[in-house]
Known about the structure:
By secondary structure, the chain is α+β, with helices and mostly antiparallel strands.
Amino acid sequence: MENIDYNYLCTVIGNLSVILVRIYESGKQIFYHSIVRLPADPLIAFRQQVLTLDSHVAYFITPGFHYYGVVNSGEYKIVMGPSVQTKNSDQVLKELAFQCDVSADDTDDFIRGMKSIVPMPLDSVLQILCTMNYIMNNEKLNLGDLRIYDSEQQHLKDQLEEARATNNFDADIKSAFEQKNIHNTLALEQTIVNYVRLGDISALKKWFANAPAVRPGVLATDQLRQIKNTFIVTATLVSRAAIRGGMDIDDALSLSDAYIQKCELMSDLERITNLQYHMVLDYAEHVEKLRLGKSPSRLVLDVTNYIQHHLSEPITTDEIAKALFLSRSRLSVKFKQETGENLIDFILKEKIEEAKRLLRYTDKTAVAISTYLGFSSQSHFSRTFKKYARCLPNEYRKRHNG
Length: 402
C-alpha cells in the first residue's frame, strides 16, 4: 500500500495501546510517540538487539520479560514497546532505569511513567503488529506465522550446550513419547522441588548433569503441546516450591506467568527445553539469595526478601524494622541470633554481590553502580567493595573481563 502516513498510523496505535511507538527510516529515528512521560526511552537498554530484527514482523523479549514488537517495510522500521504481562516492581524498574542511564534525580519519574504503561498480553501486541504489517506490506500474517526472535535463548543454548550434550535432553523427550504408558516423574519432581525449595544450586546442577530420562505420561496427543504442558506443570511445581522456600508469593507467581507466556509462543522443542532448564535454576537462585542456613525462620526470610526488593536504596535497619513491625533493637538481635551475622554487614554484602554482577555483565561505571546501589559516595562504595570483595571495583572488573 502506498502513501501511508506512518506518523498518523503510529500515533493512533500508540494512543489506543498506551505503548511507546518509534519510526526509523534507513536506520535513523524520525518519530517517537508516547502518551506516557518518561525521562528516557527504555529501548536504550536493548536498542541493538531490537533494531537488528529484520523480518516483516518480529519481536524481542528482554531478560526481565518486557517485550518489543517490530514491523519492517522497505526502509521503514516501526518499533513498539515495551509492554509487559503484569506490572513490574520498583526494583525491576530501577534496574531498567539504571541500564538506560537515567539520572538519580529522574529515576522516580521514570518508574512512575513505566508503571502507567498498561500491561498487555504479548499475543495482543503481536496482533497489533500483524495489523500494521497488513497496512504496510499488504501481507496477512497471524500468530502461527511468527517465529521466535529472542537472542536470550541463543545465549541460554550456548551456556547449556555442555549440559545438554551429556544429558541428551532431546533423546529423553523422544523416549518419553515412545513409552507413553510409563510414568517415572514423581520421584524426579520431588527431587527438583526439594532442591528449589532449599535454593541448592550446586546440587541441582549436579543432578541435571546426570538426570534420568523423564517419562511424564500422556499430557497431549501433539508432541509440541505435550512438552508445553510439561513446562507448565514444571513452572507450577517450582514456583510453589520457591514460595515454600521463602520467595515472595507475588514475585514467584508473576515469574511463573512470564515463563509460561514465553513458552507458549515457542515452536521449537530445543528452545523450550533450554527455557525450562533455565527457569528451574532461576527459581533456585532466587531462593538461594533469601535463605541463610538450612532452616531460616520467617523473620530471616522477611528480612532477606525486603533487602532483595530494595537493593537500589540506602537500606537501614530502622526501615526494615518499620516494614516488619518490629523495634530496631529486637530486629538486630534476632537476626544476629538466628544467622550469626550482623544485619548491616549482611545488607552491605548483598549490595556488593549485586555490584559484582553489574561490574561483570554490564559496562556501567563504578560511579554509576555506586549511585544505583544507594551508597552515600564513591569512596564509601570503594571502601565497602574492598572490604567484602578484597579488591577495588575496577580491579574486579579487569580480573573477570580481562
